[in-house]
UniProtKB/TrEMBL annotation:
Residues 4-63 form the HTH deoR-type domain. This is DNA-binding transcriptional regulator YafY. It comes from Nonomuraea roseoviolacea subsp. carminata. It comes from the Bacteria. The keyword Transcription regulation applies. The keyword Membrane does not apply. One of its GO terms (molecular function) is DNA binding. Pfam families: HTH_11 (PF08279), WCX (PF25583), WYL (PF13280).
Length: 315
């Protein structure tokens, strides 16, 4: 850092990365004395960058809250991390349009060499995870819910159910969860008086209120979301007894698919299925011995599957 301009830019980068730094700390990091730090701060202020200086024992320098720096100053490692995060977000289905726009902006402001390297990364990187075409919720709804949950403020949401019915609900949010390409919020729903899960892409509006609440210590938003997905109102409620240990069943069956309960006779699997033939295929694919509890029509579906398999393997 042999040039004042370079050191001044380095000071700006440090203030961008930290909430505030003392004069002595800044001087040590920049390799200058504290008087030079004061001069750099004054020069940055002259350039229109609001560097606030606070006197006293715990004083120092900081950028004014809300100020957005025109140049994007990233190290090579930071730029790579940003590009990787955006590429992974695109594959996961996170706000596709916003992700593409952010990638385009990043490309435009990167130095030429780093831009070419980031482009090579984008062209050659692939994922074992399949891409998802996700329904993206409104950014404002996500941010408003996040702030309300952090501050423990009740919100009023307008929600559209799976069958198109519109309702207005008061919600004490417990957490946001991103799962399989979709955003969910879980919490205490005052309309039903129960712990509920809602898809964010079906929320039309979120209005924070003044009422406050506490989140129970035992609250687990991820577990709540995955458990609620296993109870999506498909056509057929299913109960099957699996004759394996609970740990073995849990390794093969995620909580978003079915609820598993240990019993003296084995592991009781509870879920809902839209197709009993599909359910029979799933049970066969598990490779576990099982006993069908309900519905009776599932037994017929399993027999049809077995007959089809036998017909395809003649002696």
């Amino acid at each position: 850092m042999s040039y004042p301009a370079t050191r001044m830019l380095a000071m700006l980068e440090l203030l961008q990365a930290h909430h505030g730094l003392g004069g002595r700390d800044l001087a040590q990091r920049l390799g200058v004395d504290e008087r030079t730090v004061r001069r750099y701060a004054a020069r940055l202020a002259e350039l229109g960058i609001p560097v606030a200086a606070e006197r006293g024992r715990y004083g120092g320098y900081r950028l004014m809250p809300g100020y957005k720096l025109p140049p994007l100053m990233l190290t090579d490692d930071e730029a790579t991390a940003v590009v990787l995060g955006l590429l992974a977000g695109r594959r996961l289905g996170l706000a596709a349009a916003a992700t593409e726009a952010a990638l385009a902006k990043i490309r435009r402001v990167l130095p030429a060499t780093l831009r070419e390297q980031a482009g090579a990364l984008e062209e050659t990187l692939d994922f074992t995870l399949a891409g998802r075409a996700a329904q993206t919720p409104a950014s404002r709804a996500v941010l408003t819910l996040a702030a309300a949950i952090r501050d423990r403020r009740r919100v009023t949401v307008r929600y559209r159910s799976w069958n198109g019915a519109q309702t207005e609900r008061e919600l004490d949010g417990h957490g946001l969860v991103f799962h399989s390409g979709r955003w969910y919020v879980t919490g205490h729903d005052h309309r039903s008086g129960e712990l509920r899960t809602f898809r964010l892409d079906r929320i039309a509006s979120v209005v924070p209120g003044t009422a406050s609440y506490e989140i129970p210590e035992e609250s687990d938003p991820v577990r709540q979301v995955t458990a609620s997905l296993a109870q999506v109102p498909y056509a057929h409620p299913v109960e099957v007894l699996l004759h394996v240990p609970l740990a073995e069943a849990a390794r093969r069956i995620p909580p978003s698919v079915a609820a598993l309960t240990e019993t003296p006779d084995g592991v009781l699997l509870r879920m809902r299925a839209e197709s009993l033939d599909g359910m029979a295929t799933m049970l066969a694919g598990l490779g576990f011995p099982f006993t069908i509890v309900s519905p009776r029509d599932l037994r017929a579906a399993v027999r049809r599957l077995a007959e089809g398999l036998l017909a395809g393997t003649p002696e």
